Structures
1.
Amino acid sequence: MRRVRRLASSVSVGFTLVLAIAAAASGDVTTQPSAPGDRAEATIEKGLGYLKSRQNADFGWQEGSDPPAITALVLKAFMQNSHYDPENPFLDKGFDRLLSYQKPDGSISADLLATYNTAIAVSALAVSKEAEYKDQMDKAVKYLRDLQWTDKIEGLPQQSKKVDPSDPNYGGFGYGRQGRADDSNTNIALDALKDAGMKSDDPAFQAALKFVTRCQNNSETNDQKWAGDDGGFVYFPADGGSSPAGEYIGPDGRKLLRSYGSMTYAGLKSMMYAGLTKDDPRVKAAWKWVANNWTLDENPGMGASDPKAADSGLFYYYHTLARALRAYGEPVITDSKGKQHDWRIELIDKLQATQGSDGSFAGTQKWMENKPILATALGVLALQEAQGDLLEHPVK
C-alpha cells in the first residue's frame, strides 16, 4: 500500500540561494545569499548533503557502539526539509534500520540510554508523518510515559514503587526508575511527546512541570533548600542537586549550584510545553537568566569553574536554545547591557561561519560532539528551528 506522504513545509529560497549553491559547488564564495532565511537554507542543504554522504552500508548513521539516536537525529533533520521525503529509498531504509532496534517493551535503543534513544526516535517518527510507523511510534510513546516518575504505576517492571509528589524526582525522566530524574532526559522526552502531538494539559507535561520547577534556581517557586535566585536551571534537584557547571558560595555563605545554558533552555522549553505564560514568575526568572547570559560563543556557565569546558555540549546547546526560543515566541532578546539580539539571525550566522567546507560541524569530545555526524545533525536541527521561526515571525 502506498505510503501517506508528509506535507512538506514550503520554504521560499529565492534566486540568491540558487546562486549560492552553485557558488559552493564551484568554489566561488563571492556570491552569498543575503536574506537570513536563504542563508539558513544554504547552510542546511550543505549539512544534509554531508549527512547523506555518510550513511552506512547498514543504512544507519551511527558508528560502532554509537547509540541509534544518532540515526534518529539525522532522519529527523531530513524529514524537516521540504526537499526530502520518507519515500526516498535511502531514508526509507534508514527508518527500517532505526526501527530494527525496537524491543517488545516499545523502547528503541541498544544500550542503557533508553530514554534518550527512544525519545529521539519518537521525534523522528512523528515528524515523518508516515502512517506506516504509527504502531511502532505509539508503542515507544507508551514506553516513555511508563518511564516518567509519577504516583501511578504503569506497565514497566522497573516501576516497583509509586513516587510521592514531594519527591524531587516526581514528574521527571531519567535513565530509568531506579536512579534519579534529570533535566536533560526530561526535556528530550518532552520533545518527543510534543512532536507526537501531546497537548500542554496532558498529565505528562503537568507532572513534568513540577520536576523542572525543582531544577530552577528560583527560591520563590522551588521548594528545594539549595535553590538560588538567578533564574537558571541545573541538571537535577535530588540529593542536594547537581550541576556539571559546578558550585559556588553565595553572598550569604550558602553553597549554590551554578546554572548553565543548555539546562536553562531545556527548563524554559519544558515550561512553555506545559502551558505556562510569559507572565509566570518561573518563566520570567528564566527569561532574565537568558538575557543576562546571552551568548553563542559557549555553553554559558560551563566555563565558570573550568574555562576549558566552556564549549562542552555546544551543539546540544544550540539545538535546545533554538527549540526553547521558538516555543517562547520572542525573536529579540535584550541583554543586560541593553543590546538587542535577533537570536535567529545570530544563530544562523554563527553556524554558517563555523560550518566545514564539506558541510559538517564538529564540537568537543565531551558528550560525543567530536563526532561530525552527531554535531552536524544537531546543527542542522538548530538551523531548522531558526528557519521555521523566521517564517512564523519575519524580520521587521
Note: Confidence is low (pLDDT under 50) at residues 1-30, 156-160.
2.
Amino acid sequence: MREVHGYSRVSRVDLRPSQSARLRIDRSDGTPLFDFRLTTGAEGFRLVEDEPAPRAERYVHAIGDSYTMGWGVDARASYPARLAELVGPGLGVLNLGVDGFGAIGATAKSRALADRYPPSAAVYLFSPNDPEDDAQAWAVSHRTMPSHVLHEAFHALRRSSYVAGIPFALRYGLQFRAGPARPGTSGIKPGTIQTGGPIEFFDPASLLLPEPAALPPPQADAPTFAALLEYREFLKHRGARLVVLVLSNQASSLQAYRFCKEQGIEAQLFDVAPSMRIPDEGHFNAAGNGAVAALVARLLQAVPIEPGR
C-alpha cells in the first residue's frame, strides 16, 4: 500500500506517480475482503491498467476520496471508468479520487491538472468523513518546514521497511477483527460483487434520497466548505460546471448538502442499495460504482431527475 501512497504537504496523503501494487486483505477464513490492483500514471492519478491517460478536448474531473477512486475494485470497475463508457469518446474522464482526501486534497489535485486536462465539469463525491480528513489536511499544511521533512523521511522509511509498517498493519487487523461493518444511517448493510457489468435498465433516481424536512446548519469556518467555495470560483472562471454528490444522510452529509444549497452549488443527496457495497467493509462494489456512474451521466446531461424512493 505504501508503494502507491505518499506524504503530501497540501493534502496529507496523495498517490505517487507511476506506481502499481496489488492490495488484498483476507478474512479469517481465507477469502478476500477485497483484492484489487491500484495503478497510477505519471501525473499521480489512478488509471485503468495497460491504458494511457485519456486524451480529449475537454474533461470531467471526478474528484473525491476512496469512493471516487474505486477502493476495493479494479480500475475498470470504478465509477469514473464506467462513466467514461457512458459519455463516449468525445469527453475524457479523469479519476482523481484518492483515499484519505477531503475537499482540500480533491480540489487541489483537480486545479493542478486543469491546464493539461481542461475540465468542462467536475464531480465532487462528498463522503461523511471528508470534514475530518480536511481538518487533518489543514493541520498538515500548516506544519513547519522541518516537520514536513521529517514526515517525508518517515514515509520513505515505510516504503522500504516492513518494521515501520507494523503499527499500520496492526490497526487494519484490529479494525477488521472487530466484525462486520455497521449499516449506515440509511439502514444499508453491505453486499458485494467484484466484476463490472452492463449498466442497463437502471434508474438513477433510485439512488437519490428524499429531501430532508430539516437540515443541520453547516460549520461556518469548516475547511471543507472554504475549499469548495474557492474551487467553485476556479471552475467558474474556466466556464466549467460543478456537481456535488453528497453520500448518505449522516449529520456531516446533511450539513454539506445544506451548505451547497445555500451557496447555489448544484448538489444531490444519495446513497446506494445494500447489494452495492463490499460486505464487512462498506465501499461500493462494481455494481455500486456502475450505479453511481449512471447517476452522474444523467446529471451531466442536465436531465432533471427526482428521488425514486
Note: The domain at 51-142+188-300 is CATH 3.40.50.1110 (Rossmann fold).
3.
Amino acid sequence: MKKLKIIISGGGTGGHIFPALSIAGEIKDRMPETEILFVGALGKMEMQRVPAAGYKIVGLPVIGMPRKISLNMIIFILKLFKSMRKAGKVIKTFRPDIVVGVGGFASGPVLKMAEKKNIPTVLQEQNSYAGVTNKLLARKVKKICVAYSGMEKYFPKEKLVLTGNPVRKQLLDNIDKKEALKNYGLDEEKPVLLILGGSQGARTINESVMAHLDKIDNEGVQIIWQTGSFYYKEMMHRLEGKCPKLLKPYEFFTHMELAYKTADLVISRSGAGTISELCLLGKSSILVPSPNVAENHQTKNAMALAEKHASIMVKDSEAIGILIPEALKLIKDREKLKIMSENSKKLAKPYAAAEIVDVILETIKHR
C-alpha cells in the first residue's frame, strides 16, 4: 500500500481534540509512514495541544456562528470565506487521500472543500445530538462514526457506524495505584475524590467546592481538584489561609491517567469524551451537565449513565447546595461505588479508535 496522507480537522475543546489525537495515534501505530496533518481554528486549544503531541497543524481564522444577527455575523461570514479559501489551498498542497472531521469550527470548511475536490470524507460525531455543521456535512460524507445509537434521526442511516468515542491512549496504560497516589502526595488509607471541570474549568463545580470548605475539612476524604485554567488564579486567591489540608487544587492535570487511577469517585461535567473515559475505566461518578451547550446534550449524556445506575446526575442549578455533601456521603458507601463502577464498565467501547480507523481505511480502499 502506498504511503497515505490524511487530514484530521476540528477541535475547540478537549472533547474534540483528544478523540482526534487518539485516531491519529491508532493510524500511526498501524502505518507509521502515514503523513497526518491537522487543521484547527486559530486561537483555539488545538493549536497548542496538537503540536505538543508531535503532529503538524494548520490554523484557519474560522469562528463560531453568532446566535443573533449583529455586526458579528459580518465578521463570521468574512472569516468563513477566508477559511474556505485557506482550506482549499491546504487540500491542494497536501493532497490527502481522505479528510476526517471530528467536530469544531474548522471541520466545516475543510470537509466542504475536500468534497468539492472529490476527496472522500468521514465524520466522527462524539455526542448524542448532531450540530448544524455536521448535519449539513452529512449529505456528502462517506461514513459517519457515532457513539450513540438512534443517530438516524440526524444522519442517513446507511452511513452510520456505531463505534463509540476514542479516548486518550495513555488512559489504558497499566498504572500502579500506589505510584499514582504517591504522585499527588495522597494517603493510601483515605478515599480519593477527583473533581474535574474540563480544561478551562466549570464555574458551578468550583463554586460547589468553595461553598463547603468546612465540610471538606472534617470528612477525612482526600480531594484532587482541577479548577481549570480560566479559574485557577481566582480560586487560589480565595483559598488563601483557609484551604483544607485534604484539598489539593490544580490548574490542569497533565497526566489524566494518574489522576483517574487515584479516584474512588469522580465529579465532572458530562461531555461525550469524559463519559467515554469514565466508562472505559469503570469509574463511579457524579455528573453535573453543563447548561450552556447546544440542545442540552450533556444532560442526555448524564441521563444515559444515570439510568443504568452507573452514575448520579446533579442539576447545575442545584449543585452548589448539594454536590459536595452528596459526594462525601457516596464515597463512603463502598458497596454502591462497586455497583456503579461495574455498571459503568459495561457501557464502555474500548476499541473505538481501532474501529474508526477501520472505517477510514475501508473508505480509502473504495475511493
Note: The mean pLDDT is 92.
4.
Amino acid sequence: MTLTTFRQSPRDPAFVQDPWPAYDRLRALGPAHWAELPHLEAVFAGHAEVSALLRDRRFGREAPDPAPTPPHLAPFAALEAHSLLEREPPVHTRLRALVSRAFTSRAVAALEPWIATLARDLVDRLEGPAPDLVAGYAEPLPLAVITRVLGAPPEAGPRLRAWSADMVAMYQARRDRALEDRAATASAEFAAFMADLIARRRARPGDALLDRLIAARDGEDRLSEPELVATAVLLLNAGHEATVQAIGNAVRLVAEGRIAAEAFLGPRADAAVEETLRLAPPLHLFDRHALEDVEVFGVRFRRGERAGLLIAAAGRDPAAFPAPGRADLARPNPAAHLAFGGGVHFCVGAPLARLEIRVALAELLRRHPRPALAEPPRIADRWHFHGHDRLRLRL
C-alpha cells in the first residue's frame, strides 16, 4: 500500500485551537504519512485501527533496537528505563502486577469523600469576577490528590508540579534542546527527591500508595530501588497532568453549552465523564514501535519503525460514534473511547482519574450550575497534549 502524504503543522495556531477538521481529513485518507511528523512511518485515525493497534502485541512502546541516549538526556532516560509506561512484557507484566497490588479499586474508592471535601474547599476559594479555573481548581485538585495518595508532603506540591511539567514537555511537538535540558534537570531532581522520600517512608511506613509499593511482593519478587523511583515519578506525572487538562476541557464543554451541567449531577454522571473524555481527550497521540517486520491494515512496517495512533481522531470516528461531535449520554458504548489507551498499557490510574473528574465537575457545578466563559478560551501550544493554560469563567 502506498501511503498518502498528509500535511499539517502541529504548531499551526489554527490547528492547535481546532484540530478536528484536520483529523477528519486524515481519517478519510486511511493510514497516511504525516509529513511534519517524520519520526512516524504511518498515522492511523480510525477507531477500529487505533483500537486494534493498541492491543496488537507486534507493536509496543519500547523500541526493539534503541538508539544510544544523548549524554545530556541521561537522567531522563534513566527513569524511562524502569518506567511501567515504556517497558514491554515480560518486564512490563512484572511491574504492572506489583503496582496493581498497591493501586486497588477499593483504595481508590475510599478517596471519594476526601476528594469531594477538597473540591468544595477549592470551589470556595474561586473568587473575583473571572477566576481562572485552571490555576484555582483544575491544577490544585489532582496535584493534591496524587501527592496525598503517594505519601509526599503537601508542601512539596509546587516543586513536583514544576518537575512534572518540565518532564512531560518532552512528549510535545515543540521539543528543542532547551526543553530537553530542563527535562533532564527536572528528572535528576525529581529522582533524588523520590529516593529520599522512599527512604523516609521505608523507615516510618504508613498506608500511602508509596508504602504499598515498597511492600508490594509477588512471591519473592518486589520492585527494585530504581523501579520504585521511576514508578513513583510516573504515577505523579501521569496522575495529575492529564487530569488537569481533562477537568478544564470538561468545564469548557459545559460553559459552551455542549453538555448540560445537570449531566454531572445525576445518575448519568459516569456517562458524562466518558463523553467529555471522548470529545476532548487531554492526550491526542500515542505511538508504538513495530517489534518485528509486520504488515497491518495494508501498511508494511520494518522492525523498529513507529506507528502513530491518533486517539483523539478515533474518538470522533462516526463509524464508532454516530454524530461524533455531539455529547450523547445514551450511547451504548460510553467507555469505548481510547483516552486511557488500550491493551497492556491501558492506564493503571484510570479509575482514579475518572473519580477525580466526576467529583470535580459535580462539586463545581453543584455550586455554580451555569458557568460562562469570561474570555475566549485558548488551547495551549503544546500538541499533542490538549488543554488550557488558563480558563477564565464567570460563575
Note: Residues 4-394 form a domain with the Cytochrome p450 fold (CATH 1.10.630.10).
